[in-house]
Write a structure and sequence with these properties.
4% strand, two-stranded antiparallel ribbon
Length: 523
């Protein structure tokens, strides 16, 4: 008993020691994890502080570099005052403004001086010489600034000879070009400016391959959204072409292309949009961003300053300037967006401009969709059954097919059945004759007759099975031929109705687009 108690006590002490050791190990693990986490947080804080300290030093270095370009900063401030005065009063600043000296190679110096010198109904000779100097330094930015001034002042004196340069598009349009495009299309300048814009857009679109333009127009129109199984695939194609034609006609009426039917704009929606537009002036933002671009000598310095300020946490989204040189999208995509968006004023503004520019492509797409929608439906269809083909019309099969359907089931000829039945009959006769000598032979005769009857029944059963299989094959062929005939009739009916609607819709579209094409040919 004492040995048992001693062993139990020793085991108990060992278990308690192991439990205490396990608890100490867990405590050490938690402490090590906490120390690693604190060490990592401390290292991250040290890294952030180091990065901020380096950025702060770089910020001071950049400020020292910018201090060497104070005249360029003064030119930008002066240009802002001049532009604001010209927009409001139509002339240069009337109050005392410190005029900075000209910075060689900086387009804004000459452009601001030209705007300040332009008084009265139009630019003076001195202003014209300054504008030419600014254009020599940077024709694109000079033309953009003069056009922005005229757009906000709603006059055409400055932009008349510079709008074409400002609206020289490539494959894509920048944010600044898109804003100029929108403002000109809304009628902020005269009709001559709208014609120049339309011509520049036509040049950009005509530089693209016609198949690519037509494919983009088709992609902007909705595809077929009918439920599966309602019609054959060919009937769905007819309906898809008709749907796109109707959507194209709806876009010309300003209904948009949202799912084939766009809900008309509500009055409150327009009020919300107009309020949002009134709260922000994109032309003013573009003007400030264009003026705020540095001179050639300090452009890299300003870019580095912007990066450093973001590192220091000074990147305020509200004060972030617009990147006027960023891409707003391809010219073709923007035109298609203007064309397919719903509007309450179809044929005017951005919508009317898109219709004028895209008229040739829209006419080509109309011809293509009409040709597809009026394509004659097939009069017959070949229905394949394994290795056989049956021509089906709306009245059924065009030629006899029952025998061909039956031949698809091979004949099961049991060649052994007849000889076996004859042999069994002979054996039955012999055994029956011997039965008159010994009655046991009669039993053998009966067995032989049964075997012969079984062979004959097997042959009969095989023939019946083949006949049933052939009947089922003929029935299956008949069912599929009838279904194909119904589908063919449905396709022809769909084609007939689609053809009529497509022809009338295409004629209406051409009636709207034909004057645009004639205007283009005349110009």
């Amino acid at each position: 008993m004492s040995d048992y108690w001693t062993d139990w006590s020793q085991s108990r002490r060992i278990e308690e020691a192991e439990a205490a050791l396990h608890g100490e190990r867990q405590a050490r693990s938690r402490l090590a994890e906490q120390m690693r986490r604190q060490q990592g947080d401390l290292q991250a804080q040290i890294d952030r502080l180091t990065q901020a300290f380096v950025a702060l030093l770089e910020h001071e270095d950049i400020r020292a570099e910018l201090s060497q370009h104070t005249e360029a900063a003064a030119t930008r401030r002066y240009a802002g005052d001049v532009v604001a005065s010209v927009i409001v009063t139509g002339a240069g600043p009337t109050h005392q403004v410190s005029v900075p000296r000209d910075i060689p190679g900086y387009w804004l110096s000459a452009a601001a001086a030209a705007l300040a010198a332009g008084t009265g109904p139009g630019p003076s000779p001195a202003a014209t010489e300054l504008v030419e100097e600014a254009r020599r330094r940077d024709p694109r930015r000079t033309a953009a600034l003069l056009t922005l001034v005229d757009l906000q002042a709603r006059r055409v004196e400055w932009s008349r000879d510079h709008l074409e340069v400002a609206l020289t598009f490539g494959a894509e349009a920048s944010v600044l070009q898109r804003q100029l495009w929108t403002a000109v299309a809304e009628g902020r300048l005269d009709t001559t400016a709208e014609e120049q814009l339309a011509e520049r857009l036509r040049v950009a679109v005509e530089a693209l391959a016609h198949p690519d333009v037509d494919a983009a127009v088709l992609a902007a129109l909705p595809a077929y959204t009918g439920s599966p199984g309602r019609a054959t695939s060919q009937a769905k194609e007819y309906e898809a072409h008709l749907l796109r034609l109707r959507t194209l006609a709806g876009c010309l009426r300003g209904e948009g292309a949202g799912g084939g039917r766009s809900a008309p704009l509500q009055g409150r929606d327009l009020e919300v949009e107009s309020t949002a537009e009134a709260a922000e002036d994109p032309l003013a933002e573009c003007t400030l961003a264009l003026i705020g671009q540095g001179s050639p000598a300090e452009s890299d310095i300003l870019a580095r300053m912007a990066d450093v300020r973001r590192t220091l946490g000074y990147d305020d989204p509200g004060a972030r300037s617009t990147d006027v040189d960023a891409a707003a999208g391809s010219v073709l995509d923007l035109l298609l967006t203007d064309f397919t968006e719903a509007t309450r004023a179809p044929g005017t503004g951005l919508h009317g401009l898109a219709v004028r520019v895209l008229a040739p492509a829209l006419l080509r797409v109309t011809d293509q969709l009409e040709a597809e929608a009026t394509r004659p439906a097939p009069r017959s269809v070949d229905l394949r059954f394994r290795d056989d083909v049956v021509t089906v019309t709306t009245d059924g099969a065009a030629q006899p097919w029952q025998e061909r359907a039956a031949r698809t089931i091979p004949d099961r000829r049991l060649g052994w059945a007849t000889p076996a039945a004859i042999a069994c009959g002979v054996v039955a006769l012999v055994c029956g004759a011997l039965g008159f000598v010994n009655g046991a032979w009669f039993m053998l005769a009966l067995l032989a007759l049964g075997a012969g009857g079984g062979a004959l029944y097997a042959r009969y059963d095989a023939q019946q099975e083949v006949a049933e299989s052939r009947r089922l094959a003929v029935t299956r062929w008949q069912r599929e031929i009838d279904e194909q005939a119904k589908r063919l009739a449905s396709t022809q009916e769909t084609q007939a109705s689609t053809s009529t609607s497509a022809t009338s819709t295409a004629a209406a579209i051409r009636g709207v687009l034909a004057p645009q094409g004639a205007e283009r040919a005349t110009s």
